[in-house]
User: Which sequence fits this backbone?
């Protein structure tokens, strides 16, 4: 029985502080994870501005207020503080390289802010350009091609999955669901061969927004993940580098400690391989 924790890196503080906190915690608990790393410019402030101007803009969850989950530097990143890139700082590259020895690193799109707001409406060429930039920067950091992607804010478009398939990716993780399946976009006549590896758990900020206490959150994740693993032998819990490891590490520790007694923590690729070899889908 196994599950995955996917750590999404969306913001610069998440990348420079939250990632290290997560790596320390994972080492202490002796677990592996899949780390979804945002590539391209980090400019979350511009995203916040767009969201204020357009309240209907996509969000990944019913969230708590931005200033309760995002460091002030990231709230204004790209407006009052500079736009940055993971590949432009050697120290960051070294942390990611060293993390890749234990954990799986996949791209979390390119230009998180732009992708979150515009990706669904992009043309085929614009989609290809963004994916090309994503692959290039991943290669620049890790010296190899990526084999998977997790779309920022779960935003996909009619060209995305078929392009990932052409890039010979082995899976992508872009939707909420129960277990892996072969996704099919409306524009395609045949079924896509790219495996879709969904997120299965509630986001912690949505539980906090509903008023859950710390104890209730711990109980929620323990029972939610146990149930998913029992029913589908699959579970993917997404946490965010700038949030859970930085503010709620005690919750992560408690949930993982309890689950570890019965459940193995794997990377998403390990879960995918298990599904493919057992033909459980
Ligand atoms: Zn994200």
Assistant:
């Amino acid at each position: 029985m196994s599950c995955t924790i996917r750590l999404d890196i969306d913001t610069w503080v998440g990348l420079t502080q939250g990632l290290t906190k997560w790596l320390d915690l994972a080492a202490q608990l002796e677990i592996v994870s899949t780390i979804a790393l945002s590539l391209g410019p980090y400019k979350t402030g511009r995203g916040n501005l767009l969201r204020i101007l357009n309240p209907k803009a996509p969000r990944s969850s019913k969230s708590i207020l931005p200033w309760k989950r995002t460091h002030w530097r990231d709230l204004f990143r790209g407006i009052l503080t500079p736009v940055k890139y993971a590949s432009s700082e050697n120290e960051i590259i070294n942390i990611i390289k060293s993390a890749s020895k234990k954990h799986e690193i996949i791209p979390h799109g390119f230009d998180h802010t732009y992708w979150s707001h515009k990706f669904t409406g992009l043309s085929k060429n614009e989609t290809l350009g963004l994916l090309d930039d994503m692959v290039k920067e991943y290669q620049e950091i890790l010296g190899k091609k990526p084999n998977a992607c997790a779309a920022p804010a779960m935003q996909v478009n009619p060209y995305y999955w078929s392009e990932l398939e052409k890039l010979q990716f082995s899976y992508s993780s872009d939707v909420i669901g129960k277990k892996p399946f072969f996704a099919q976009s409306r524009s395609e006549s045949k079924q896509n061969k790219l495996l879709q590896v969904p997120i299965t758990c509630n986001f912690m900020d949505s539980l906090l927004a509903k008023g859950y206490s710390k104890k209730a959150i711990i109980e929620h994740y323990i029972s939610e993940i146990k149930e998913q693993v029992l029913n589908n032998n699959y579970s993917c819990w997404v946490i965010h580098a700038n949030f859970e490891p930085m503010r709620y590490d005690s919750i992560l520790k408690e949930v993982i400690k309890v689950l570890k007694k019965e459940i193995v923590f794997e990377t998403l690729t390990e879960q995918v391989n298990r599904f493919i070899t057992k033909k459980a889908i």
Summary: The first strand starts at residue 2 and ends at 9. The pocket of zinc ion is lined by residues 8, 10, 108, 112, 152 (CB under 6 Å). The chain has a mean pLDDT of 89. The chain has one domain: 2-278.
